[in-house]
Amino acid sequence: MKSIPIILLGCGGVGRQLLHHIISCRSIHYKQGIVIKVVGVSDSRSLLVSDDIMLTGMEDEFLAAICHAKSAGSPLKSPLNLGHCRLFTEKEAVEKIVATASSLGGTTGLAVVDCSASAETIDVLKHVSSLGSCVILANKKPLTCAIEDFEKLAFHFRRIRFESTVGAGLPVIASVTRLISSGDPISRIVGSLSGTLGYVMSELEDGKAFSEIVRAAKSLGYTEPDPRDDLSGMDIARKGLILARLLGWRINLADIKIESLYPSEFGPDSMSTEDFLAKGLSHLDEKLKERVATASLKGNVLRYVCVIQDLRCNVGIQELPKDSALGRLRGSDNVVEIYSRCYEKSPLVIQGAGAGNDTTAAGVLADIIDLQDLFA
Ligand SMILES: NC(=O)C1=CN([C@@H]2O[C@H](COP(=O)(O)OP(=O)(O)OC[C@H]3O[C@@H](n4cnc5c(N)ncnc54)[C@H](OP(=O)(O)O)[C@@H]3O)[C@@H](O)[C@H]2O)C=CC1
Ligand SMILES: N[C@@H](CC=O)C(=O)O
């Protein structure tokens, strides 16, 4: 039986769903001759590591107890007495993860899976990667910091996977990398890459209030922890940047033209996420209602679109015909059109659910399994 030891960074909506998927896929993986051994789980404050990283990892009942505790808002340490593991503080966590990567690196190997929403994981990811560990990300931030950091991670292209960073479980990254590897030059990528903004735009057409829609998108697990990351266009810009960097463009977030759906006085420097959701959002209802109505009079709809072409990446609202590929999108679906020499007139189109904990975590799990050949 092939064993894949993992340390999970981040035990929020996506991280917990990943643990549930790992548990529920045990028999499928067993038939494939694979067992995923969760040896560590961290959140923003602490890290739990199994006492026996070499043999067993954490038991499924203990993983379920961790998920239960975290979804109830309790700290990671609360189920500590139910499992055979040790707790490390935030300060000790990086050292412990690196030590685990060093000890498992020479034997079974280790995969560090980043389901956090933090830019701070970049250093530990670079470190474990340099020690030979695999890195799998749902978190876009480590790939959208400095270009040098992206290149350091991407340099180990056989050991890194980040399919869920763009289009959640949709095979967008895989399609782009396959085209690149086959020497088919990509000239343009255009798409609706935000599940949240797709959902917001299509629900606005149904006459609902912007504030209600955003709150619903958050409860459905589509938004980033702070929905302003989506509404500012920043999250979709990160996805655009990851795709542009995959094309070999050495660009940064600052090079991307981004249109925000809210003015700066509602930004994180002026109010908390809770205040924005409770009070700030409703100030935007009327303006967006009018914008949707004006487009509708011309038979058009609004879509938040990312265009990557000619060394430029722009993200913002476009008014599009209702019956266009983007105009027909409903709910949190994404659509991505990739134009290349082989797909010049008729683009390669990828479409489907583009956000949500279930599909995102499924994409992460598929990435882990995709790396199975690197494990003993
Ligand atoms: N939801 C979706 O549809 C998709 C999400 N993603 C990405 O998945 C990631 C996770 O999203 P989601 O689960 O919704 O976010 P949540 O806010 O629900 O969870 C984030 C988790 O990360 C933890 N965390 C924060 N900082 C650190 C750190 N430095 N080290 C380790 N853990 C840390 C948090 O800890 P604590 O519990 O203590 O706050 C929390 O457990 C995000 O990067 C998001 O962009 C990607 C594609 C789609
Ligand atoms: N908040 C994101 C989640 C996936 O990256 C989105 O809405 O698309």
Automatic annotation (TrEMBL):
InterPro entries: Bifunc_Aspkin/hSer_DH, HDH_cat, HDH_CS, HDH_short, NAD(P)-bd_dom_sf. One of its GO terms (biological process) is threonine biosynthetic process. One of its GO terms (molecular function) is homoserine dehydrogenase activity. Keywords: Amino-acid biosynthesis, Methionine biosynthesis, NADP, Oxidoreductase, Threonine biosynthesis. Pfam families: Homoserine_dh. PROSITE patterns: HOMOSER_DHGENASE. The active site is at K239 (proton donor). Pathway: Amino-acid biosynthesis; L-threonine biosynthesis; L-threonine from L-aspartate: step 3/5; Amino-acid biosynthesis; L-methionine biosynthesis via de novo pathway; L-homoserine from L-aspartate: step 3/3. NADP(+) binds at G10, C11, G12, G13, V14, G15. Its EC number is 1.1.1.3. NADPH binds at K140. PANTHER family: HOMOSERINE DEHYDROGENASE (PTHR43070:SF3), PTHR43070. This is Homoserine dehydrogenase. It comes from Carex littledalei.
